[in-house]
Design brief:
4-stranded antiparallel sheet, elongated, 10 helices, 2 domains, alpha+beta, 65% helix, 9% strand, Alpha-Beta Plaits, Multidrug efflux transporter AcrB transmembrane fold
Amino acid sequence: MFRWFNEPKIDFMKPRRLFLGLSALACLAGVYACVLLWQGKAKLGTDFGAGVQLRMSSANDVGIDKIRQSLKEEGFPEAQIQEVKDDSSKGFKLIIKIKHDPTKAVGSIGDEVLALFNKNFADSKFTLEGSDEVGPAVSQKLRDDAFKAFIIAMMGILIYIAFRFDFRFGVAAIITTVHDILVIMGIVILSGREFNLLQVTALLTLAGYSLNDTVVTFDRIRENLKFLLKDQTFTDVVNRSVNETLSRTINTSGTVFLTLLPLCFMGGDTLKDFALTLLLGVVVGTYSSIFVASPILVEWNLMSGPKSQGK
């Protein structure tokens, strides 16, 4: 394995309380984002927000402002319009998201909007390439199922870590994983990006990635505790373990980061958001393995063990 450092001796645990404080603030932003999500005030995808998503195209570029004004005049004032720019295809492409309207029949909105555009922009010859429609009952079920999937995943992590190591390691791993997910949700939702099932997939993927990175560090801590010397404290062992796994952490995270980077710039519109979430998750997951998971163990040990164990 390529080593970035030759026996590094960085004192990661000295500023641990500063980083734990910063992480706590970031988690509060994530909690606020979750509140917005629960209240339906976040930018939700069609699968979570109940509504219809239309994929339309035309030969000529009409302009987003004209499209928005036309929809507003015809009874769709809250429609979200996004132009799709794809170098591999020609023409003017749009994704239009309209909230669920119980007074309209299923599948009728797409035909209504198409007729509207062909009336107002006859020269552009709009076509409806596809539509996805989700009712409020289905969207609520999808939100509930996503929440249940997250809880089940967290319980599985706790049981696995507690069985492999001990309970405090399991709790530290859970807190770290929740930290990563809250921080990423805060970034995604508060930045105005769409939150949908694909984002949930990305978050669960990141939970597994972050856990794997944390387990590697925890495993080294466990091994080093077997050879704890009289002049060493628990804090010293944790700090030494983080240093010993530092090159591995950088190599793994750096490889994943470089793989995701091209997808963020050259992937399709849907893939870009997914790749960006994963990219941010790699950075946050790497940070948390060093500055959240291990410091939690140190603080727990200091509160529960004798004072002679170190600072």
